[in-house]
Write a structure and sequence with these properties.
about 80 residues, mainly alpha, elongated
Amino acid sequence: MNDSKRSLRGRVGTPDRVQRLVIGLILMGLNVTGLMLHPEWLKWAALLVQVELVGTALIGWCPLYWSFGTHSCSMR
């Protein structure tokens, strides 16, 4: 793998970051308003997903992308 591909490995591009942030915030809103109360596991699953989505959107790096050796950044 060349150096330019290695430096982009795991990086999350801007459109992907926006989508992750929007979906994470929607899930957070559903949790906060109490629309995800039953079943209880759904509430906790949504919490885990929203933390992962918002976290990766804010830092711009995804551990799953890194483990698969891919990225969603443009190759400029």
